[in-house]
Amino acid sequence: MELKCLVWDQCNKKLHLSELLQCIMRVVVHFPLKSVSALHWGNIVCKNLIFSGTTWIQEIVDMIQHDGDIEKCKRATTYLRHPFIEWVLPGPFSLELAEAMPSPRTLKTHLPVQLVPPSFWEQKCKIIYVARNAKDSLVSYYHFHRMNKNMPEPGTWEEFLEKFMAGQVLWGCWYDHVKGWWEAKENHCILYLFYEDLKEDPKHEIQKVLQFLEKDLENEVLDKIIHHTTFEIMKDNRMANYTFQPPAVMDHSISPFMRKGTVGDWKNHFTMAQNEKFDEDYRQKMARTNLAFRMEL
Ligand SMILES: Nc1ncnc2c1ncn2[C@@H]1O[C@H](COP(=O)(O)OS(=O)(=O)O)[C@@H](OP(=O)(O)O)[C@H]1O
Questions:
Q1: Mutation test of ligand 1: which of 205, 249, 258 has the most ligand atoms closer than 8 Å to its C-beta?
Q2: Could you tell me where the beta strands, DSSP code E, fall in the chain?
Q3: Quick one: which of 208, 6, 235, 237 has its CA closest to 115?
Q4: Backbone phi, then psi, for 84, in 5-degree steps?
Q5: Of 39, 66, 118, 249, which shows the fewest CB atoms inside 10 Å?
Q6: pLDDT tens digit at each of 297 positions of the chain
Q7: Whole-prediction pTM
Q8: By its UniProt entry, which InterPro entries does this protein fall under (predicted)?
């Protein structure tokens, strides 16, 4: 609750994005909102989500944009192919990378809808949002905190569960994030996908992406994209599985980035009591939306 107020208060006062993000995400971001707004982004496809299959949709979009050419999609790591606009990385700054790329560029962001640079809307960027059910997102996020040394210590599973429910995690409150983007799709160019649907029927969901990006590919190429973007293949793809990060940043021996890639792993983490408490809280927070998730397939 506190975090949510902080975001809105500071947005209303038009503070710099860097100040906002330092508060919210405890990372240092060097570009102020003004300079981001002033950029001409062109026709960008970007993905906005919170620990829900970003890397997966990035690979799908890249394969689509390169007509299923696997070698071209292995030209660089995920980070370099798709600048992560709010994250400061060693090496070239994400924004510089983005500016050097020809349109249509593909960018990555986890920002909640109210923090997206206004130019995204002004330039009518195409946005693909992938949402994942809260319980699996939470489990995945917890393990990511354990293995990623740039993230705050998650504490115990029980402690992290409480923080998640309270929205006291990086990129803010899951409930507000998914609802915010769900509402925004009524007025903007947003394709809202669900991780569970992608898992259940990748062909159907990738066809939606093709249509959204106004691309037409042969059936054979589509099958190639489906295969190349399966969990098993991506787990072995060094350009997508984050093993390119040194262990001091991501320690895959604690928990691999490509961990399980399933729906329903939350059942291996929640106790019965935790599940009941979570469900009750969830009902309240999601009461006034028609946005519905599947917790299992
Ligand atoms: N191809 C494919 N199929 C199924 N699942 C996949 C795939 N690629 C990534 N993943 C899973 O997505 C989880 C990581 O989420 P993100 O990519 O959004 O992480 S990040 O926020 O961008 O760092 C993480 O989920 P968990 O395995 O449940 O932890 C990844 O395994």
A1: 258
A2: 45-48, 106-109, 126-131, 190-194
A3: 6
A4: -95, 95
A5: 118
A6: 222 222 222 233 333 443 344 333 322 232 333 334 334 444 444 444 456 899 999 999 999 999 999 999 999 999 889 888 887 766 666 778 887 888 788 888 888 998 888 888 888 888 999 999 999 999 999 999 999 998 899 999 999 999 999 999 988 899 999 999 999 999 999 999 999 999 999 999 999 999 999 999 999 999 999 999 999 999 999 999 999 989 999 999 999 999 999 999 999 999 999 999 999 999 999 999 999 999 999
A7: 0.87
A8: P-loop_NTPase, Sulfotransferase_dom
